[in-house]
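Re-run with default settings, no changes from the original entry. Doing this only to confirm the output is reproducible before filing.
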Amino acid sequence: MSLSHPAGVPPRARLFALLALICALGAVVVLVAAGEGGGLVVVVVGVAGAALTAMGTWWVVAHRGPARLAGAVLAVAAPVAILVIYARADLWPTALAAILVWAAAVVCARTALRAARPPAGMRAVAAGRPRQPVLIMNPKSGGGKVGRFGLVEKGEALGARVVLLDPEVVTDVAAIARRAVAEGADLLGVAGGDGTQARVAEVAAEHGLPFLVVSAGTRNHFAMDLGLDREDPARCLDALADGEELRVDLGFVGGRAFVNTASFGVYAEVVQRPEYRDAKADSALSALPDLLLGYAGGTLEAATDDMRLEAQQALLISNNPYSSPEPMAVGARRARLDLGVLGVVGIRVNNAAQAADVALRGARAAGLHVLTSRQVVIGSEAESIPVAVDGEALTLPTPVTCSIRPGALRVLVPRDRPGAPAAGPPMQWRDVLALAFNRMTPHACGSVPGCPTSGTASQ
């Protein structure tokens, strides 16, 4: 039984799928050719080293005193031990060759899957030039990017009215945005962090106005996933003269909009601490042992559209899912912001063995749940819980409902922009095998016309 595709597998997809299988077989051959069990030693030592490194890292973040010191030693010693064992057994050429050939197999496999399912980006439509744009700018955001890149001057030269925030005064940016709408603004824009972006984006969505993102924050995750230039925020202002419009979704947590993520549990507890802003790493290391081992904070439960997650230490709810299998990894991105679903990541790691499981198996580990849902209800025994909304610390009464409003936000972007990365389908070797033998599965072909999506099998 196999799933066939009426139009057949694209030749490029089949070629790279065959190359991926050849390289994967090549990695096995390299290990077997080592002789006298050398290949088995390479695999066992590599897996054991990775597991020990993860266990050591767990002790560092979950304990204090001697246990933390021992964890730090283990996290450093395990990789060194792998190299020493390979060198003493003269296995490092075998290990290096196997890693390189396997890496080539993975690259070819991903290329095959992308060729079988050409990724679709967010659709842009033509947009007229705004007549009364209002831009809200935070001069302190991103270490002073507003002044460094001359954003006020460029915005005004393009016909925008600029509202410069006073960094010494706590300001309600949503109120400023609503006042601008009442005075006739036909576009709202923000040069600032993602939290400020979200507050003004909510007002723009309420009134059906286009919204302009200027990447003047520190990390600019929202701008990155919109495909904007994060190195030169002044380029974002080009949209005022030559722009096009994207319809994107908005996430909501407890009735408040977010453009990136709402985090619950361990991270949200750390962000609440007054010392976090000035010493993030030290504050986190101080707080994590009590939080992870259950001496402070509390576990959470989450009800999604299809399942219930119990006793979670941390929950990450994102406005659209991340394309990476490990959404909390550095550099994880969302290739699309218009899928109409929330990304949900639940984490439950109680000991070093479970930490090793997550390190080795990623999203397949028992302690990590990665799924999507249109709505998520977060519950806890506490009457209220801390939440980090786009990096800002809040406290909300339980239960907390997270939802998404598809296409709620009209984002004006420059026609000439770097663009967001294209997301490939999930990495599944069974799909690569099917492509190599001229078969298409629903995961492999996705939205390609004629692709099977119902899961009906044919002889």
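The chain has a mean pLDDT of 83. The radius of gyration is 25 Å.
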